[in-house]
Amino acid sequence: MTDPLRELVAVMDRLRSPGGCPWDAEQTHATLVQYLVEECYETVEAIEAGDCAALREELGDLLLQVVFHARIASEAEGFDIDDVAQSFIDKVTRRTPGVLSGEHSAQSRGSFPVSENAIKLIRLFLSNRLEHLPRITVEARELRELRQVSASFLQWIIR
């Protein structure tokens, strides 16, 4: 197998399969939450330190978490890593249809009225999940942007 991402999925499959790693086999989404959060914070630390080698390693650890959770989901929830990737493709295509189709050129970040973080906060707020976010994600910048969003934009987001 020459595709490193497919090889990563195959390694996780071996770890979770009978005869694989007992620790990996007994994990659930819930038991892995602490590791997912830890890897996110370690990734942030690597970025803030400007340490490219550490960032590469931490991104790999985050990728492992994604593949691990997708494997667990394939066993219990009926979706797998390909479904996760397709969900991302669908979301990006939906959010940037003109850019991906070539109809519009990419705009600078400053030309967008609301950041992607603000959109996520709005969706979380509307679904009453804001209290579950780690405090680090709710920054004053996003809150200012959140206040600036019009009712019509909210309706567009939740459709």
In short:
The protein has about 160 residues and is mostly helical. Helix content is about 70%, strand content about 0%.
Description:
This protein has 159 residues and is mainly alpha-helical. It is 70% helix and 0% strand. The mean pLDDT is 78.
Question: What is the topological layout?
Answer:
Blueprint: H1 4-16, H2 22-26, H3 29-49, H4 52-76, H5 81-95, H6 97-101, H7 116-126, H8 140-148, H9 151-158
Q: Roughly what is the average pLDDT, rounded to an integer?
A: 78
The count of β-strands is 0
Shape: globular
Number of helices: 9
Low-confidence stretches: none
Distance between the termini: 41 Å
Percent range of helical residues: over 70%
Largest sheet descriptor: none
Give the helix/strand class: mainly alpha
**What order do the helices and strands follow?**
HHHHHHHHH
Beta-strand fraction estimate: under 5%
